Amino acid sequence: MTKELRLALIGYQVQEKYNDGTVRDEDRDLFDFLTGKGINLHREVWNDPAVNWSAYDAVILKSPWDYHEKHTEFLNWTDGLARQGIRAFNPAEVVRWNSDKHYLKDVYDSGFPTILTHYLEKNTTVNQEHSYFRELSTQRLVIKPCISAGAKNTLLVTPEEFPGLVPLINTWLKEEAYMIQPFVEEILTGEWSLLFFGGKYSHSLLKTPKDRDFRVQHYLGGKVSFREADDDLVAQAAEFVSRFAADTLYARVDGVVIGGIFHLMELELIEPYLFLDNDPQRMENYYQALKKRLEECLSL
After folding, report:
1. Which residues, at least 6 apart from 30, have a Cβ–Cβ distance to it below 8 Å?
2. Are 95 and 88 in contact, with CB atoms under 8 Å apart?
3. Backbone angles phi, psi at 166, to 5 degrees
């Protein structure tokens, strides 16, 4: 059945930029597993001009990790696939929405628990007043771009440090929009990542930052501990998937538990590291979700 469809597993040009060599190449693991299942799969780079995309029936957006650096080009590429009738997992409209962290406002406005966020729009400026600290009821702010990945231009700022950083922040705002959030102390004890394939829960893990840091990315020294989330936590995370990522092959729900309530930090629907760890059951979960998507393609 699945051999009738030709698929591309999408990556990017220079993986070393986001991988210091200590992170497992799960693209290779996944490629080997899926081709072993009979999937007609080929590895491609999303912006490689030599690729004939019309030769593919569908693409899997696995690790286009530089999309935020070429945002408009990337969205044009996904839209172009849609115009050619090439299915994308995840769909172009989901990718467009999720590619800009203004989406968190949609989540918040829909009544879901998220980290309170203020937005600094492009070509605006901030001043040296500390109103952000008062409005967000915090003594530490996290400032980061609305379109970003890998903790790019991310700052943790105190009221004392803020005035000295205003010129830098205003320079950044000439290029793109930023977001301001209160620093959440719970991040020090762990940020949960729950993985869903085809809307079904697969596995989970807890990420903690290295000493004297607040960034949990594993390629920045964060620690990853595979842990099974309890049923209540899975149910809370699943509500985000059901509401905002129902038609997705994969979704990673990142957040922290505050007072027993799961608060979303990010809903990763474009190129999340899936922490498959070459585990047979996690790989099988992914495969079953993909198989269902391919069956749907064949039924059209």
Report:
1. 9, 62, 274, 276, 283, 286
2. yes
3. -55, -45
Helix axes 280-299, 26-36, angle to 10 degrees: 60
H helix or E strand, kind and range, residue 74: helix 71-83
Place of tokens 């990718």: 95
Strands (E), 146-285: 155-157, 178-182, 191-197, 200-208, 223-226, 250-258, 261-268
CA dist 284 and 281 (Å) reads: 5
- List, edge to edge, every strand of the sheet that includes 58-61: 40-45, 6-11, 58-61, 87-89
What's the distance, Cα to Cα, between the start and end of the chain in Å? 14
Q: How far is CA 80 from CA 53, 103, 245, in A?
A: 10, 22, 21
> DSSP string covering 108-146, please?
HHTT--B---EEE-TT----S--HHHHHTT-S-EEEEES
Q: What pLDDT digit, counting tens, does each position of 16-32 carry?
A: 555 556 678 899 999 99
- Is residue 88 classed exposed, middle or buried when 0-12, 13-18 and 19+ CB atoms within 10 A define those classes? buried
**Phi-psi region for residue 39, left (φ > 0), alpha (ψ -120 to 50) or beta?**
beta
pLDDT in tens, 36-88: 999 999 999 999 999 999 999 999 999 999 999 999 999 999 999 999 999 99
Closest CA to 248 of 240, 256, 258: 240
Look up the pTM and report it.
0.92
DSSP labels, 247-288: T-SEEEEEEEEETTEEEEEEEE-SS-----TT-HHHHHHHHH
- Strands 6-11 and 58-61, by their bridges, are parallel
**How far from 283 is each of 30, 208, 280, CA to CA, in Å?**
7, 24, 5
* Sequence-ordered list of residues with C-beta below 8 angstroms from that of 3, at least 6 positions apart, any chain: 38, 39, 40
- Look up residue 162 and give its two tokens: 């803020």
